Each structure stands twice: as structure tokens, then as C-alpha cells.
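assembly run, all chains below
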Amino acid sequence: MADMTVNQSAARSKAAVKVNTRAIVMGIYLLFLLLPIYWLINMSLKTNTEILSSFSLWPRDLTFQNYATILTDPSWYMGYVNSLIYVVMNTVISIVVALPAAYAFSRYSFMGDKHLFFWLLTNRMAPPAVFALPFFQLYSSVGLFDTHIAVALAHCLFNVPLAVWILEGFMRGVPKEIDETAYIDGYSFGRFFIKIFTPLIASGVGVAAFFCFMFSWVELLLSRTLTSVEAKPIAATMTRTVSASGMDWGVLAAAGVLTIVPGALVIYFVRNYIAKGFALGRV
Amino acid sequence: MEKTVNQKAWFLVLPVLLLVAFSAVIPLMTVVNYAFQDTFGNNVFFWAGLSWFEELIESDRMWAALGRQAIFSAIILAIEIPLGIFVALNMPKKGFWASFCLVLMSLPLLIPWNVVGTIWQIFGRVDIGLLGYTLDKLGISYNYTQDFYAAWITVIVMDVWHWTSLVALLAYAGLQSIPDAYYQAAKIDQASRWNVFRYIELPKMAGVLMIAILLRFMDSFMIYTEPFVVTGGGPGNATTFLSIDLVKMALGQFDLGPAAAFSLMYFLVILLISWVFYTVMTNLDKREG
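ok done. output:
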């Protein structure tokens, strides 16, 4: 009896140690992830003189001036507006064309379906650097240079394949009997698709839209190459400040923090789908 | 799932086909055009045959960039894959802390790539950055704009910071799919921790790990924005990876022929990897289905 108690308490303390090592590993890893982000936020709340003259772990002289600069100066905040415009355009286009295509891939086999599916994948994997120059010439020649739609269409290169793959991954989980029952009940394809099928994969549409949004939002090379003034994205506005002399670190940091906000806002809702989205709906 | 043969399904795919053809095939044809032609300006082109490719194969510049790229991708994989698995094994399985870790770990994945560069540019500076300042105070000379090793370490640590979570999340998803019965059986057999990992967890994770390796390889192979913002490819050409070199050539110097030939060879590598990726994916589907 006494033996058992000893054993149990030994086991318990061993378990406690185990839990602790796990917590310590995660703690260190999360600290490693968050420290640079914290530093950016820290910078954004300091004045430029404080940044350059003293070194402190937190802002001594707390200021929101950097954010005020960005939100009142059109050359800054228009960057966000431009980015949002083409990102939303791109997301809508991608999802609308990808929905029927993903349905076709998940339900039917047709001539060349596998080749087409593979070809889509190669576009998701294609390096933007290869396409930067041809895109520039293509959109210049059709008079779309420096417009939002040009960037939105260019980002379709990787976002449409991404959306098709993710949606297909979700759709294959929906049993085919549902389609057949609906057709027997006299639904036309269009009505069935909009009224019954799309609500069934609503979470899939949400995830696909989120990833289209994100990948378009984080891309810099193509959006910078295809724009100059009218549609200049925030990413390009930021790099141009970097190259200018007499850098305003506080404003740069504040601009960076603001670009993280859209992702951080929805992160909680998609937390269980992040791996699935990056793995093209296959996990 | 049994699929019915239906050629009309082509109509559902048509919009995607047209859109992607417009944004992929037309530009790619331009690249092919430039790769085999030369010009003296004024849009007059003449056939150049394979001369651009020959020039490219003989140029040290391309090989140097390719070498740097290969080393970079190899280091990235060697660090991120084991570290990601390790983190995934230590993540809480469920409850509040699981969500907590998931949210915080996903954060770097959703930061715009140029901001990732900016974060590390600031973080590593000796005068204003926490990392640079600390290292400097410890007496370690660290200057990522001047020093070859410092630049490389910064770029690598930045990529580890940015993408290890992806590997961890994928591995975590693989771990979650292992039924409890497996662990109970292992306990009855008194299997060691290592054996549980080697014979239960690793085989079950194999599929997602393959995806993780391929994704990380692909994305590190075409990395552009992050090192460009931090080091600009310098000092010298120390961190000029393939994409950075290609953009310099195409948009900076407007050397269309070599850049196009470069692009095509780049694209062939990507095509090869995509094919491996596709094969892995379809095999994974078959095993599940």
C-alpha cells in the first residue's frame, strides 16, 4: 500500500516534469516568434528621436504620432486602400471562377482532367520573379499598367489554382448522394449549386477566401512591378521609404504593424485550417 | 469517390482555364520568345538559337546564384523540418492552450513578406534593434549589411522564424490524426519514447511531412522579398539568390535574352518539383480513400 503511494507520487512528479518541459519548449519557441514582433510594436510607439538617441525595452515616451502620420497622410493611407482594393478584387474573382471548376474536379472525370489539375499546381508553384517582366509588358501593352485590376489579375496566377485545390479538398468530403437526391427532387444544376451545395462547403469557401486574401496581401514583387502611382500598394510605399535617406523608423514600424492587423484579426477563426490551407486542402 | 465520366464538366472548368491561360501562358510565351531571339532595339528581333542558353551555362554568375540558392534551401530544410517536428511534439493536444499556441504560431505566417524583412532589418540593427544591440553589448561583432556570415545568419534565422510554424502546424495535423489506441498499445508493450516516435508518430506523419518538405523547398527556392528588404542581396552578392538575381537581370539591367533563358531553366526546375509534389499528393489521396 505504502509502496503504491510512493509509486503514484513518483509518477505524478514525473508527469509534472514532463508537462513542464513541454511548456518550457513551447514558451521558448513562442518567445522567439513574438520578440521581433514585439520589437516592431515597441518601435512604432516611440518618437524617432527616442529611437535614435536611447535604447529601451519599452517606449518611455509613449506616442501615437506615427500612426497619426500614416492615417492622415494620403501618400501613406492610400497604399492601404490600393492594396485592399486589388486584394478584394482578386479574392472575389478567384473564388467565383474556382467554385464551379473545383466542383467539376471533385465530381466528374473528363478528358485531360488530371493534366489540367497538375498544370494549375505548377502555376501555384511558379516563381513570381519569372513572371515580373512579362506581366509588366503584357499589362502595359493592353493599357492596364498601374491599375488595380492589373494586379488583381496578375495575382490570379497563383490564387486561382490555390482556390481550386483548396475547394476541391473540401468538396470531396461532401457525399455524392446529396447531389443525386437534389437532382431527383428536381433542382436544376444552378439552383442546387447555389442553394444547397455552396452552404454545405461554406467553411471551405471561407478558408479559400482567407488564403487568397492573404497570399495577395503579402505579395510584393508583382504588385510593385505593375504599379507606379495610382495603384501603388502599401508594400511598395514601405520599401520606398526604406531607400530614402533620413529614415523615419517609427513611421516605418507603424506601417508594418498596420499591415499585420488584417491577418491578426481573423487568425482565431481560421486557426484550425492554417495547415490545411497551406497544404492546398490536403491535410 | 467514384467519379462519373462527363465531358460537359469542361464548361465548369473553362473560366479557370481562360483566366489562368491569360495570366500564365501568354507571359510564358513572351519569355520563350525572348529566350531564342536577340534585338538591336526598335522591336526588331532576330533568331538567336540557343546562344543565350550557352551564354548562361558558361556564366559564373548564374552558377554562383544557383549554388547560393541550393545551400540556402538545404540549410533551411535541415533546420526547419526537425525543429518543426520537435515543436509539434511539444504542442498541447487540446483545450485552451492548443488554440493559444495555434494562434500565436500562425502569426508570422500571415505577415506580409516585406514586413517580415522590415521586422528583421530593425531587429538586427546594432543601434536600434534588440538582437543587434544585445549581440553588440556581448562583444560579438555583428553587422548584417557588411559582414558575410552575419548577413547569411540573419537571412536564415529570419526564414526559420517565418516558416518553422508551417512545418510545425502540418506535423501537428499529422499527429492529431493518430488514434489513442496506438499510444495505448505502445504503453502496454512498454515502448520507449523514441520507439513511439520512430514506429508510430513518424510513419503517420510521413505524408504531411513530405508536403511540408516540398512546400518549404519550393518557397525557399523562389524567395525574393525577405532577403531583398533586409540585405538587398548584399554584402556584395553574398545573399543574391536566384530570384533576386533574375529580377536584377530582367528589370534592373533589362538583359531580356539571358533573363528569359534564366527564367525557362528556373521554370523547368519548378516543374520537376511540382510533379513530385503532385505524385505525393495523389498517393496520399489513394492511401486515404
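The beta strands of chain A are 108-109.

Chain A has two domains: 2-44, 72-278.

not gonna interpret more than that til we talk
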